[in-house]
Design goal:
This protein is α+β, with helices and mostly antiparallel strands. It has 8 helices and 4 strands; from the N terminus they run E-H-E-H-E-E-H-H-H-H-H-H.
């Protein structure tokens, strides 16, 4: 079996790859890349991932980056894990990759603007407006997700890593102050998702990472402004 090592920081979208790895049942190592001290831009880490991001999955020493690529590789390598529809069913696999792309390329950047609006405008008084526009955009996509989950328990016909990405998005949005009141099916989906053993194991790894960070003087989760800037 391949030697697997995942570079991650708790609370980031590396959580999606972490859940995927836990679901495979494969042995793997995690390496905490400490965003709090800028380790993701350090010369050592840039040799692993020149993009200065997480996740990065080292497979027998070769680095694979970006969630969609990592999850596709895991799905093809561990087909019994049910991460995505089988490659033999081209239409279903393509539909799943379409949903993952929607999460990664469209909704994820909106989440970043909710969580860290100050990164997108250097005029202090305008930062709340960045958050408000991101919130408006998130409502559009949340309504689409809510509609899908109102008629089925998972994003596809059964659980997949698409659900993991949706729930990372949903969790981060809520922590950033996004109003979740109109989305009961997304809320119920969150409860179902958290109960899965692979998800619980991944979240336990994240908690352990946060615990270690606190011993280094880091107070909590990823650096972020107060929820819902005003």
């Amino acid at each position: 079996m391949p030697n697997l090592k995942l570079s991650f920081f708790p609370g980031t979208s590396a959580q999606v790859a972490l859940i995927g790895l836990e679901q495979t049942g494969a042995a793997f190592e995690t390496v905490l890349i400490n965003f709090a001290v800028g380790e993701h831009r350090s010369p050592g880490y840039l040799l692993i991932n020149a993009k200065g991001k997480v996740p990065a999955l080292q497979i027998d020493g070769r680095t694979l980056t970006e969630n969609i690529a990592i999850l596709t590789w895991l799905s093809r390598t561990y087909p019994d894990a049910g991460l995505l529809p089988p490659a033999s069913d081209l239409q279903q696999e393509a539909d799943a990759l379409s949903d993952l792309s929607w999460c990664a390329a469209t909704i994820h950047p909106i989440v970043t603007r909710l969580v860290l609006p100050q990164l997108f405008c250097d005029i202090e008084d305008a930062v709340p407006r960045v958050w408000e526009l991101a919130s408006d955009a998130m409502h559009w996509h949340a309504r689409l997700l809510e509609r899908r989950l109102s008629v089925q328990p998972w994003m596809l016909s059964k659980w997949s890593v698409v659900d993991a990405y949706v729930q990372w998005i949903w969790g981060e949005s809520g922590q950033a102050g996004f109003d979740a009141a109109d989305y009961p099916h997304l809320q119920a989906h969150a409860v179902r998702h958290r109960e899965l053993p692979a998800v619980q194991r991944a979240l336990a790894r994240e908690r352990a990472a946060f615990d270690w960070l606190r011993t280094q003087g880091f107070a909590g989760g990823p650096p972020r402004p107060p929820a819902r800037p005003r």
